[in-house]
Amino acid sequence: MSKLKESLALQIFLALGLGVVAGLCFLWADQVAFPVKWLKPFGTIFINLLKFICVPIVLTSIIQGVVSLGDPKKIGSIGGKTILYYLCTTMFAITIGLILANLFTFPVLETSGAEYAAKPPVPIMDTIIKIFPTNILAPIVGMDMLPVIVIALFIGFGIILTGEKGKIVKDVNDGLVEVFMKIMHGIISLSPYAVFCLITPVVAENGPKVLGSLALVLLCAYIAYAVHVFVTYSTAVSVLGKMNPLKFLKGGTEAFLFAFTSTSSAATIPISLECAEKNLGVRKDVASFTLPLGATINMDGTAIYQGVAAVFIASCYGIDLTLGDMITIILTATLASIGTAGTPGAGMIMLAMVLESVGLPVEGIALVFGVDRIFDMGRTGVNVLGDLSAAVIVDRSEKKREGLVD
Ligand code: ASP
Question: Structural domain tally of the chain?
Fold first, then answer.
């Protein structure tokens, strides 16, 4: 990691600390409206900029990744390993969430006054159909990441199959990758300021609620997030990726902190790509395939949250979940997390699907609705670390397949 990168991680960390202190000061001075009105908009502008660069980066870098892999067999091998790893870790994540939530005794909360209008969950087959676009522009304009990935894969394959005549498209795309990366670096250099502007209003607005009765369920979710990162990912990167877990965690810090404050895995893709290539030594073609895919379908933190929230809501309503219910939750939360968009608050909407699968009242979402942002910060951080761990592991396994390492 270069000195500059190191100092950027430190700057983000400092900004986070300062933001927490500033948020508490605004709270104690009873001036919550000030950071909401004057700081939050700058954070929002920054997230807008990241979102704006996200689709061009994903589209062009996946095309570049596919073309540079060249061999459709290699793409199949990377894709297969990545998806298998994502599915396994998500199941682990939800199991950890359920076990920990069952160890806690949650108080029964007052449900009156909680307002949340649940949206109907999207059936899984509809999600699968929507992956295949009917129109080349609509997914790009709508930032619909899975179809964007499919479009990029098709264009990449098209370039490979066209050979010499398609070379001009490859060259233009390579140039575009460079241009978008330059823009992205400029945006990322602003991240410490953005982190401060994003975290201060969250602390000012949520302080009292977090100190209240929801603290226990938040604590449970955060312990589960930590267990998943320190046990599952650390073991996976050291056993499968042959990388020291400390190096992995240090290398992923910027992406984690950014995901934590922005609550959007999609907006964090550019930063994850940087961390993977510069800090973790993942090759560009593997990173540009695994990370955008992970930001779209791999949501371990979200799965943990859904498990913890389901047990919490059940206990608030005095409902006992059976072992069969738990297994159903593991399966539906895994599917729900695949269908969750990498955007703020998306996991809470998909929680409706998990609750419905075991007959829990969907209105129960209202109980956790008020502090969703706090849950979301942790779960997005975990989601992004999960994507990075896959990049490390798949890269290592491909290097082994190519005989570059033992
Ligand atoms: N905010 C999460 C993410 O972008 C999704 C969620 O709400 O769980 O990864």
Answer: 1
